Amino acid sequence: MMRFLIPLGIFFVLVIFLGIGLKLNPREVPSPLIGKPAPHFQLAQLHTPEQTFSPEQMKGKVWLLNVWASWCVSCRAEHPVLNEFARRGQVEIIGLNYKDEPADARQWLAQLGNPYTISVMDTEGMAGLDWGVYGVPETFVIDKKGLVRFKLTGPVDPNNLQTEIMPLLQTLNGEAG
């Protein structure tokens, strides 16, 4: 009798874990970076490769890091939202062009508009790896002290912009640097 109870108990434990897993939102991937300093990188700028950019240049400002690529279908879907948001001028958006050909990235921005204050080239994906990028697009909110405060996996859309990102930006911009 006991030899049937052990497998049955294991089966029920697995069913419970499966049930919990099915209720999780795959877009809510927790980031170990939240509350920690933004990972360092120093990368060439997409439009002026002789110049570099690093997150340290943004200290004292609240800003967004948007990880994107010209080959990314979801990036194309979020792009009009980012363009409109950038027109408002509420916060600087830095683009991290991930595992892309620079010429393709420049052409894509020329055709679709450029919401980025600066976009840098992460052709090998090493900076993205340091930021814990699972895929593109991903967007991070960084505060005035250089701490990562929020990560959105997947495209920015009008809903998450209005309900998650904008309220956080308003709070962070109200805080003393």
Structural notes for this entry:
This protein is α/β, with parallel strands linked by helices and 177 residues long. The protein has one domain: 3-Layer(aba) Sandwich (Glutaredoxin), CATH 3.40.30. It contains 5 helices and 7 strands. It has helices at 2-23, 73-88, 102-112, 126-130, 158-174; strands at 43-44, 52-53, 63-68, 92-98, 118-122, 138-142, 148-153. A 5-stranded mixed sheet has the order 5-4-3-6-7. It has a two-stranded antiparallel sheet with strand order 1-2. Strand 3 (63-68), helix 2 (73-88) and strand 4 (92-98) form a beta-alpha-beta unit. The protein is elongated.
- Low-confidence parts: none
Global geometry: elongated
How many extended strands? 7
Which superfamily, in CATH terms, is the homologous superfamily?
Glutaredoxin
CATH architecture: 3-Layer(aba) Sandwich
Which class in CATH terms?
A: Alpha Beta
Roughly how much helix do the residues carry, as a percent range? 40-55%
Separation of termini? Answer: 67 Å
The portion of residues forming beta strands comes to: 15-25%
And the CATH topology? Glutaredoxin
How many domains? The number is 1
- What structural class is derived from the secondary structure elements? alpha/beta
Chain-averaged pLDDT: 90
Kindly provide the radius of gyration, computed on alpha-carbon positions and rounded to a whole number of angstroms. Answer: 20 Å
Q: Looking at the chains present, what oligomeric state does this protein adopt? A: single chain
**Secondary-structure element pattern, one letter each:** HEEEHEHEHEEH
**Mind describing the biggest β-sheet?**
5 strands, mixed
